[in-house]
Amino acid sequence: MGSSFKFDDREIKRLVDETVNEVARQYEHALDQMGLDLKGRPVEDIKSLVRARFEDLGGDITDPELTNIARAISEGTKISFNVQVED
């Protein structure tokens, strides 16, 4: 017995884009909240909290991104992600 499936490439791309954008919104929301709570705190204190939050959301972050994000949070800078899904 065999089965075949036909996938609509455009629909798959749309679903992937939606999913990736939703994940980015979750991270941005988490970082916005951290910005409200942690503005003005030392970067080194913020780094461990950012790493933990990324892990809570199922992600991973390495330096220098971790330091850059922690610095932005400390300075009160809005953080946004530019999401691009490559074919």
Summarize the structure.
The chain has 87 residues and is mainly α. The protein is built from 3 helices and no strands.
Summarize the SSE layout with pairings.
Layout: H1 9-38, H2 43-56, H3 65-75
Helix pairs in contact: 1-2, 1-3, 2-3
Keywords for this structure?
87 residues, mainly alpha, 3 helices, 63% helix, 0% strand
Can you tell me about this structure?
With 87 residues, this protein is mainly alpha-helical. It is 63% helix and 0% strand. 8% of the residues are buried.
The total count of strands amounts to 0
The rough form would be described as elongated
- Report the helical percentage: 55-70%
Encode the helix/strand succession as letters.
HHH
Distance between the termini: 33 Å
> What is the tally of helical segments?
3
Spans of at least 5 consecutive residues with low confidence: none
Judged by helices, strands and strand pairing, the structural class is mainly alpha
Beta-strand portion reads under 5%
